[in-house]
């Protein structure tokens, strides 16, 4: 299927790994010019080189922290008039006990997961509206819709971000700009690999056994974690011409771990 976005300019923030990287890959496959930001230069450049080699599209690495004003300025200097903005970031740490979360952790989570993405959306949405076309997709977390103690730092801030995104989506929809959110559950990302390998080592079991225990404990109906490339393809679909009548929506991608009729 042709998504109708060939030649569009796309910014993917936090795109050196995980679902962000998979999104950059999916957009590059659709012929977009992709500008990928991340803080770590080595991993970012390697990821962009692989995506460019596989797709033949222009993929530009931008070493910057999009949660800071300086980082946002550097990214927008590289791509001042994006047609597509995809935002993600490394998740805050899991929090087994809500009472142990300190003020510094809250401030950091709010800065990275809420204020930074809001500032970035505000910087590009008006331009999209003036040009008559735009797509914004925030990669958040299933915990934004289904709260859990271990995901309080991530879920609460991204729930607020989703609320803001939906409100703004109503204002710009008439100008051909859509704003949507994906809410992924557990996927095989670099963060998950590091965390679950550490947990497995501490227990003296294998990575696969640790994942299986988590799947059972959290009732993930599919019986496994998700593939980031599948999630990236869904993000790209939201960026497509075919999705022009979808806006202000939040899509859960969690393998059936949560229950909801709608």
Automatic annotation (TrEMBL):
Annotated InterPro entries: NAD(P)-bd_dom_sf, SDR, SDR_fam
Originating species: Croceibacterium salegens
Alphabetical list of Pfam families matching this protein: adh_short_C2
Classification lineage: Bacteria, Pseudomonadati, Pseudomonadota, Alphaproteobacteria, Sphingomonadales
Protein family (similarity comment): Belongs to the short-chain dehydrogenases/reductases (SDR) family.
Name this polypeptide is given: SDR family oxidoreductase
């Amino acid at each position: 299927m042709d998504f109708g976005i060939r030649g569009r300019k796309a910014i993917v923030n936090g795109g050196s790994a995980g679902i962000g990287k998979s999104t950059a890959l999916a957009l590059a496959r659709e012929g977009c010019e992709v500008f990928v930001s991340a803080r770590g230069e080595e991993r970012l450049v390697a990821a962009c080189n692989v995506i460019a080699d596989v797709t033949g599209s222009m993929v530009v690495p931008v070493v910057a922290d999009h949660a800071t004003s300086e980082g946002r300025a550097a990214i927008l200097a590289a791509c001042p008039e994006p047609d597509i903005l995809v935002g993600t970031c490394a998740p805050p740490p899991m929090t087994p006990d809500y009472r142990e979360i300190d003020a510094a952790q809250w401030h950091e989570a709010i800065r990275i997961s809420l204020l930074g993405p809001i500032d970035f959306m505000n910087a590009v949405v008006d331009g999209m509206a003036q040009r008559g076309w735009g797509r914004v997709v925030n990669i958040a977390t299933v915990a934004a819709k289904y709260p859990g103690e271990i995901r309080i730092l991530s879920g609460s801030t991204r729930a607020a971000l989703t609320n803001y995104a939906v409100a703004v989506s109503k204002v710009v929809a008439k100008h051909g700009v859509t704003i949507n959110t994906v809410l992924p559950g557990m996927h095989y990302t670099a963060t998950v690999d590091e965390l679950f390998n550490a947990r497995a080592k501490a227990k003296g079991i294998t990575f696969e056994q640790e994942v299986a225990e988590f799947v059972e404990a959290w009732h993930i109906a599919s019986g496994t974690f998700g593939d980031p490339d599948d999630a990236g393809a869904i993000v790209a679909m939201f960026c497509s011409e075919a999705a022009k009548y979808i806006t202000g929506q939040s899509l859960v991608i969690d393998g059936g771990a949560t229950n909801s009729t709608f």
